[in-house]
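Hello again,

I reread your note about wanting to compare the complex against the isolated chains. To keep things tidy I'm splitting this into two emails, and this first one only covers the full assembly. Below are the input lines as submitted, including protein chains and any nucleic acid or small-molecule components. They are followed by the predicted structure of everything together. The single-chain runs will come separately.
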Amino acid sequence: QYVPPYTEECRTGMYPPQGPTFKGAVTWYTVDLDLPPSKRWSALMSEKKDDIANMIKVIKDIADAFVPSGKLIDFVDKVLPLIVDTLPYPYDEELKGIASASGVPLGEIALFNLFYEVFTV
Amino acid sequence: CTSVVAEDSNGNLIHGRNLDFGLFMGWDMKNKSWQITEQLKPLVVNIDFRRSNHTVFKSTGFAGYAGMLTGMKPHSFSLTINERFSMDGGYIGIIEWLLHHRDAMWMGFLTRTVLENATSYEEARSLLSQTKLLAPAYYILGGNQTGQGCIITRARTESLKPLELNLKQGRWYLLQTNYDHWKAPLFLDDRRTPGMKCMNQTLQPNISFKTLYDVLSTKPVLNKLTTYTTLMEVSKGKLESFVRDCPNPCMPW
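Full-complex prediction:
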């Protein structure tokens, strides 16, 4: 159907995934729960640090479009790290480990982890 | 999001989901895509959480996000979250948290805690139904035995109208989008009707990874917000995920 909502006949033969609706397979990683929480995500985050930095940059650009003064990101960088200390163990330590391994400020990692709660409105 | 838990004719449970995220967060006019959705795609990872060299649970998530939105405890249960929009939304929970009312759980962290610690479908169901939350949500839970599948509609403090698989009533699958199952979906965002149409065409004896992937690949169940598709089979401990794209013409949500 070439007008919204672009419904179509039920698809068949899509699996195994291929073609234009398939953008790629997902890579497997291991998180060792025997490690201290601050170290669990280190290997994964050092591999993905550029991708997470790109994603955070887009969030900042969108935030700047809403509040051009940059005060929203200032708030994120100054206030959200304080929330991390209130999170239950081991999540507080894990978020600090993620920030450290990725080089992304802790407040911005906290924002990413709170996204789902915030956007339920 | 669209989540489906279905039981085949042999009593085997298959659980699948499309994770849709990024609505109203930067529309790229040139590429006709949501900016955040596109930026999330390279962050999609499958994770094997291990303790003492054994798998505790498996999940599909985003690198940098410590909570869980999709996961499975092999041979026990599978679990997905769909976002539930409400005026009594997560921001109220966050404000309460800032005001030192900290008896509620963060949604993604509860999912992770359940995947890590619950040992059965029943225990997972009880924890997901009874734990106070910061934000409303839909939990879609599948088990390892016939009839073990339910939708838990969560307000922040209570569970509303749980819906379970019921083969005697012909309910061999449950399909949840982002609307309460006892209400009609928003007419501008009806993924439930086309999804159910495809499930009904598939028929119970034919349900498998292959046919569920077909359902989750049909527009508008597949849309511009769809980041990944995950398929899970608890009895075999099998989890597969794929990053998705929705070529034009395609609904923005």
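For quick reference: Chain A touches chain B through 63 residues (CB under 8 Å).

B.
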